[in-house]
Write a sequence for this structure.
């Protein structure tokens, strides 16, 4: 465990198996690997200079939320083939173990955003990603699973397609569904309401899939309430907006709806202003008993890792050792990956 040895602050995590629940496949492949993958496919990139490319797929300066999501577009394009998804998933699982000793990992991606406008077959994309994940699991003692994502920009038919595939591959490594995507980019995304996908989420649940929804990140508490009432998710992606509503926090605590918080990501998207703001958020979550986990959202693009997130929270007196161990335990309990994997 080289990483622990190099950082005495994290010695308490020595021999602690770590769990990460919220990481996007588009953002857990290194820029070098993405560069290689793009060239292997003969893709025309916006730049021929590697260092410029690296800046395009990693965050160096804080961006607003919609700008930040634009960064996905390029990585999604590069991952838009079965082979690319195989390598990406394999790399994500292997990297999580080697860099962080993560032994339980959930990865999420949207297959429709990788099908080149309908040119690629979704089953091929999903199966190759699952096989890449499995291949890494042969090399390292990691339990992994894939969450398929719906999108706020999608038509009902497209989101229904995602859920259909999630159900189809449920016994083969797909463990849950999610919803994400820009809020203000298209007419469809601006008009989106959680109730639009209520029946789809219900189908997924009935099939035994886990449900997590991105809300309370760039959206407010009103949407969080709507998500909770309409979709009853097991977990929430981010959800930090809840700190403004004590009734909502009480609900999350009493129904044990687990937040997947992503500290560095929230700083990068300016949704959290600074460490003082972050300290207030976690203090409020703790004081109100809201169950939360710590995640990267995508380590390569955020230029972080789960261990670096822990280190940052400790160094800035945001969480204690006990809080971090508790958050990790919470993640281990809240995973959608069946214990039989
Ligand atoms: Zn996310």
């Amino acid at each position: 465990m080289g990483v622990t040895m190099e950082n005495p602050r994290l010695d308490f995590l020595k021999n602690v198996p770590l769990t990460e629940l919220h990481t996007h496949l588009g953002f857990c492949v290194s820029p070098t690997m993405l560069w290689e993958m793009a060239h292997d496919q003969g893709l025309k990139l916006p730049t021929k200079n590697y260092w410029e490319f690296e800046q395009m797929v990693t965050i160096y300066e804080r961006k607003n939320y919609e700008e930040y999501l634009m960064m996905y577009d390029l990585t999604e394009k590069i991952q838009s083939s079965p082979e690319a998804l195989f390598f990406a998933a394999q790399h994500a699982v292997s990297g999580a173990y080697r860099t962080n000793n993560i032994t339980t990992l959930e990865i999420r991606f949207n297959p429709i955003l990788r099908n080149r406008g309908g040119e690629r077959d979704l089953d091929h994309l999903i199966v190759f990603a699952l096989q890449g994940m499995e291949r890494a699991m042969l090399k390292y003692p990691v339990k992994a699973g894939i969450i398929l994502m719906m999108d706020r920009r999608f038509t009902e038919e497209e989101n229904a397609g995602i859920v259909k595939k999630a159900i189809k591959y449920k016994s083969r490594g797909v463990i849950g569904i999610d919803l994400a995507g820009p809020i203000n980019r298209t007419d469809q995304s601006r008009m989106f309401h959680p109730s639009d996908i209520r029946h789809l989420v219900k189908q997924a649940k009935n099939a035994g899939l886990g449900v997590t929804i991105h809300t309370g990140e760039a959206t407010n508490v009103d949407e969080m309430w709507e998500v909770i009432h309409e979709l009853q998710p097991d977990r929430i992606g981010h959800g930090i907006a809840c700190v403004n509503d004590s009734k909502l926090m009480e609900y999350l605590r009493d129904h044990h709806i687990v937040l997947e918080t992503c500290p560095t990501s929230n700083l990068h998207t300016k949704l959290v202003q600074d460490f003082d703001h972050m300290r207030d958020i976690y203090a409020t979550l703790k004081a109100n008993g809201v169950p939360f986990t710590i995640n990267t959202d995508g380590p390569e693009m955020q230029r972080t890792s789960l261990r670096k997130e822990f280190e940052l929270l400790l160094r800035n007196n945001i969480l204690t050792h006990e809080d971090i161990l508790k958050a990790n335990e919470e993640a281990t309990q809240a995973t959608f990956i069946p214990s039989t994997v």
Notes: The chain has 16 helices and eight strands.
